[in-house]
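Lab notebook, entry 235. We have the chain sequence and a SMILES string for adenosine-5'-triphosphate, and the next step in the workflow is to get a structural model of the bound complex before anyone spends time on docking refinements. Request logged below.

Task: model protein plus adenosine-5'-triphosphate, output structure tokens.
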Amino acid sequence: MSSSIILEGKNLKKTYELGRAKVQVLLNASLQVMQGEWVTILGSSGSGKSTILHLLGGLDRPDVDGGDVLFHGESVWTRSNKQINHYRNTQIGFVFQFYHLLPELTVLENTVLPAMIGSHSTSTSSAKDKATSLLEQFGLGHRLQHRPRELSGGERQRAAIARALVNEPSILLADEPTGNLDEETGNEILDVLAQLHQDGLTVVLVTHNVEIAAMGNRSVHLRHGAIEQPATLAQ
Ligand SMILES: Nc1ncnc2c1ncn2[C@@H]1O[C@H](COP(=O)(O)OP(=O)(O)OP(=O)(O)O)[C@@H](O)[C@H]1O
Ligand SMILES: [Mg+2]
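Result returned:
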């Protein structure tokens, strides 16, 4: 693990407005992630784990004057929408609890999709080759033309991981990736993530399971809208 900071959430604030009510989810959340690190964010349901992951990954915007996300020290949220989209598409891979595969597309089409979005350079055939090789790597070579509903939960999540990696992101953001799976299947998914991390991918994983948190290099707690400091070393 090198010692440079790849991703930083700085004084993040996020408020959701539900009708006339305001829900302040993140009050002042800061987190630094080192290149090649696996950081786990722990927190109870509703503490804002998904919210902070969305801000870090360029999926959702902090409040006005609600801090910033820095990627290699460069501001993400002061950039144009086009640049934010580019950051999200090229540097970040997302894995969700409920897979978020598009039901009408095949496994291969789902996996290729991020490579086709906003891309001027990637040819369809090279994107397909990349997606196919990732799916083969994750044991889904025989499922390329299947629809997600024809796959088991573990297979769907492996397809979702392939999709997250098709643009060769620097960082994988995983939001309770095993939360919908039985323990054995969940462990298979965690083994996949551990291997990717071993190969150099930076991982930020959200969970409320302390056993899963022990797999990473470091875990932090999100509580009362902030990341509690100092972080506890898991290993
Ligand atoms: N789009 C939204 N609009 C309004 N409120 C929201 C929205 N998204 C999240 N919230 C609220 O913000 C709070 C934090 O939600 P978040 O999904 O980040 O929590 P979480 O820690 O991921 O919880 P869980 O472990 O249940 O997934 C919750 O109270 C939730 O109801
Ligand atoms: Mg969540």
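Notes for the group: The pocket of adenosine-5'-triphosphate (ligand 1) is lined by residues 16, 18, 23, 25, 43, 45-51, 208 (CB under 6 Å). Worth checking against the assay data. The first helix runs from residue 49 to 56.
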